[in-house]
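To assess whether ligand presence alters the predicted conformation, the chain was also submitted together with BV8. Input:
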Amino acid sequence: MPPHNPNYNSVPAFHAKLATSRRILAVCGAGLSASSGLATFRGAGGMWRNYEAMDLATPEAFERDPGLVWLFYAYRRHMALQAKPNAGHYALAELARRNPGFWCLSQNVDNLHVRADHPPSQLKLLHGSLFMLKCASPTCDYQTENYDSPLCPALAPAAVNAPASATEIHPLLDPSNPLPPLDPSTLPHCPRCPPNTSLLRPGVVWFGEPLSDPLLTSIDTWIEQPNTPIDIVLVIGTSGVVWPAAGFAEQARMAGRTREEKEKGIGASVVHVNLEAEEEGNLRRLEEGDFAFAGDAGEVLGRLLE
Ligand code: BV8
């Protein structure tokens, strides 16, 4: 039996640490939105179980079958619009208002942080948004915000017969019952390009696509501010398998530390908030001063950041 970690599920110990913390970074994943009823990607309830992420969230998939990829995103837009921000989103937004030294990095594209009024200068959406559309042509920089659902008549089926629970796959996307490909001419097109020449695509970062350079630079500059180490890194509802997002927590842990601190491994307190956080399992490797809270991200953050 691994030694009991005194910081496991200990809200008072976390509150004591929070009271003396000035620089805080949060890295959020799909588990935060699961508290709002949206499907995650992997693990229990992951929507990818019927499709590999690579089948639907890559430029190659869009090239191969833009209709299937658009049905997938139309369905996720529909579910995200039906969902509401949860206590976790509001707690993070409130923390940002209280503490200008707090930044929130989110892998989520569902717009729930924005709908919770998170201060925009302290929120970095690493993978874009379901509600940004952009021209699929590499030579056109047209992009626009759009909250219509359905986005166009051809995608209306993705917004009906949606399963009650976001963790079931939409019948339209069931690979055992493939749809005939949609006619690309019925999909949304770029209004700036000549008619019917270029499709619009979701304004998200697909696998194999780089994250925005200015965004990555701004995050690196914030993390690496000299002589102002980060005190707390909140790792919320993420499996930590997608890069470069998965690397920020470790970078933040040791940034700004002296050589001696680095040699002794003295860094920020990493706070894991995950449904599957258990002391005997993946969080056994908690470093000195880390915390782990097992439970629903919305509920746990509501208590931790009240
Ligand atoms: C890049 C937007 C370089 C789209 C997403 C092979 C080929 C190509 C690339 C790669 C490759 N191998 C590795 C790579 C790199 C790749 C990568 O990391 N792949 C992984 C799969 C190994 N990364 C990239 O491709 C990135 N780009 O590397 O570019 C480059 C440079 C220059 C030039 C060209 C290229 C781009 C990655 C971005 C991909 N886009 N999203 C969309 O959403 O459709 S990623 C997608 O997964 C989501 O954004 C999601 O956030 C992200 C990570 O998943 P999680 O959020 O962690 O969700 P998950 O389901 O995994 O886990 C949920 C967790 O919550 C679990 O731990 C669960 O226990 C917990 N949980 C569940 N419920 C709750 C809960 N916790 C609390 N409460 C609950 N209620």
